[in-house]
């Protein structure tokens, strides 16, 4: 089947889609921040404006054509098995970045830079 417009065969016209490293970093950061063992990024506008001591996750993406290598700094909830949580984070981020960008993820480095205690349930003290 041939698709044409204004006499141009569109099956012969090919374009290039380029995804900037910043876009890949945002995708990976959002995916990482949504995982249960990772301390989430600031959600409110004020927290984003002033920053926090844990302004994480921070992601660096090294994009080369259709491949990307990622380095992610995160804070994790305490207590958490760091090895298993990092492996899960690595696999999920790689899978989601591949699915959303079409880029092959060649490496995902995880750097755990801090721990944050999980919030304790609020209850009555007797």
Question: What does this molecule look like?
Answer:
With 126 residues, this protein is of the alpha+beta class. The chain contains 3 helices and 5 strands; from the N terminus they run E-E-H-H-E-E-H-E. The protein has helices at 21-33, 45-50, 82-101; strands at 4-5, 8-9, 58-64, 67-78, 104-117.
Computed over alpha carbons, the radius of gyration is 20 Å
- Distance separating the two termini: 76 Å
Mean pLDDT: 84
Q: What is the strand arrangement across the widest sheet?
A: 3-4-5
Shape: elongated
Helix content: 25-40%
Please count the helical segments: 3
User: What is the succession of H and E elements?
Assistant: EEHHEEHE
Instruction: Return residue spans where pLDDT drops below 50 for at least 5 consecutive residues.
Output: none
Structural class: alpha+beta
Provide the β-strand percentage band. 25-35%
Tell me about the largest β-sheet.
3 strands, mixed
Number of strands: 5
């Amino acid at each position: 089947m041939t698709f044409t417009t204004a006499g141009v065969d569109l099956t012969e016209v090919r374009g290039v889609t380029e995804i900037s490293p910043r876009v890949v970093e945002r995708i990976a950061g959002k995916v990482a921040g949504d995982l249960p063992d990772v301390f989430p990024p600031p959600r409110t506008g004020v927290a984003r404006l002033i920053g926090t001591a844990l302004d994480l996750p921070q992601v660096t993406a090294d994009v080369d054509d259709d491949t990307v290598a990622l380095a992610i700094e995160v804070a994790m909830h305490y207590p958490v098995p760091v090895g298993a949580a990092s492996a899960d984070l690595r696999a999920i981020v790689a899978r989601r970045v591949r699915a959303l960008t079409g880029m092959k993820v060649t490496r995902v480095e995880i750097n755990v830079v801090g721990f944050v205690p999980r919030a304790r349930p609020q209850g009555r003290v007797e």
